[in-house]
Amino acid sequence: MMTRFSNKLAISTSSLGLHPSHTLDQKIQAAAQHGFEGIEIVYGDLKIYSDRNNLSVAASAERIRQACENHRLAIIALVPFENYEGSKAPLQDRLTVAGHWINIARILRATYIQVPSQYNRDCLGDETLIVSELQQLADLASAAAPVISIAYEPMSWGIHYPTWESSLRLAELVNRDNFGICLDSFHVATKLWASPFEPSGQYPNGARDLAESLHRSVTQIPMDKLFYLQLSDGERFDPPFSQAHPWYVEGEAPEFTWSKHARPFPLETELGGYLPLGEIVQAWLIDKNYTGWVSLESFDRRMRDEKYRPETAAARGQNSWRKIQALSFESGNKSKI
Q: Which residues, if any, are the signal sequence (predicted)?
């Protein structure tokens, strides 16, 4: 049975080219021309645009907002505000930077600032402290209109909050209406199912662990705390990842290395994608009946080539979404690709 999803589709600017020549305005135009309804603005792309045009980041944000409006693209998020909670840097310094981000998000008229879970190994793990710092961030984001919501993203290499369960518990402790979670298929899959070290590309108990986690996510995540979804795939390491691999960086989490180089769009099996997107889509878009924003996030090393075009990436993204739309699902909540 063909299943059609009514979710609005967005794409991250990181998914539209990774070479310095791939400009933010080119990426916006490519997304609009290929039918995307929303976009995640990567702060680094905005900063490059500012520097090239000799503008402040705030002035650039105004230009980019206008460009997105002209192209009828909603800016869903400013991303990624990294390594905030539990950092050993003075809190006031971090809140000053956060205030700048919040101001830029308001200029952009973005709904969310995405905060990936802390992955600096030198971070503090005191949960009372972490909750307090995130409450102050959320309060700062709601202190003026429009309110900016904080979408906290569990990352598979996060130090203290690498899963949706731990991040949802954190969101409940923060207890702010404008603080929720963003789920990403890559992080859920590489935490539970996909292994860069196993020749099979899969943890021995991966299928069971993922199925159980997805079932819990359907029943346990309150819809008002699920702010938006990101979908991407991952390439199997063949041979398995090791210190001899050319991408290896000492001290870097293998999942982080994986994410930087080998995250094609969902179901791009022709480029090595092999993550269980069918099961994830079944759980989140069908069983949970999630109807909010879905954003495609890819970090594909091929996009670092100067000859690569943002238009090519946008077309790949839409083709990926068509593949997701065409997934067929068997009865009994079991999926097949």
A: none
How many Cβ atoms from other residues are within 10 Å of residue 9's Cβ? 22
- The pLDDT tens digits of the residues spanning 155-209 come to 999 999 999 999 999 999 999 999 999 999 999 999 999 999 999 999 999 999 9
Q: What is the CATH number of the domain that holds 18?
A: 3.20.20.150
Question: What DSSP line would sit under 210-253, residue for residue?
Answer: HHHHHHHHHHHS-GGGEEEEEE---BPPSSPP-TTSTT--TTS-
Global pTM? Answer: 0.95
- Classify residue 272: in a domain, yes or no: yes
Distance of CA 215 to the CA centre of its chain: 21
* Residue 336 counted as domain residue: no
Which residue segment(s) compose the domain that 302 sits in? 8-326
Give pLDDT, residue 180: 98
164-176: burial string, b at 16+ Cβ within 10 Å, e else: beebbebbeebeb
Quick count: other Cβ atoms within 10 Å of Cβ 129? Answer: 13
